[in-house]
Amino acid sequence: MKILDKEERQAHISHITTEGFKGLVYGSILSTGLFAYLKKRHAGFNRFSTSIKTCIIVMPTISLGAFFADQGSWEFDKQMHSSAYTQGKLLEEYREWNNLSMSDKIFTTLNQYKYEVIITSWVGSLYGSWVYVNRDKIMTTSQKAVQARMYAQAITIVLLLGTILLAMKEQEINKSKPAPLPAWKQVLLDKEAEEKRLLESHKARGSKAESEENSK
Prior knowledge:
Layout: H1 6-41, H2 50-82, H3 84-99, H4 102-112, H5 114-133, H6 141-176, H7 183-215
Helix pairs in contact: 1-2, 1-3, 2-3, 4-6, 5-6
């Protein structure tokens, strides 16, 4: 892949970093689930060495992170070289992202993956609530289920409120952004820029040829 200038190189790094981080998150979720499943269901899990247990956690995480980063690099290269319009759009998205403050970047990322965060947090809250309540040796199973459901409902309300706050913050961020150009206008501007570049390149070659002719 050929990166033409500093901005494109930085946009490429930003894109593959984001995709790689996404892969690490998915990989860590997969690793945690696999580790918990083997620990609970596999009779020989406790006989595994520390190295094997570490590999169960590390390998899926690193593998998915590397895969997502590599896939992100391929997608970036494809978009950058498919057309002048997609290239300009991709760089414009990078400029908008780069101009955001750190807090706005965090809110934007959370809002972008809010459904994944909500579902994962909700499932985790159900499991965590049951594990916490199940430690009580006095309550019956039905009482534990009721108590765990109450905790899960409280956490669900907190997650819903968090979702509303994220949506409000996202609207605030979008209002501060300049209005995007219509697609047809962006295409015309890109075409004009390409024609101007070709004309300047043609003039430069003509001037060079004329200089060489005069030097003879």
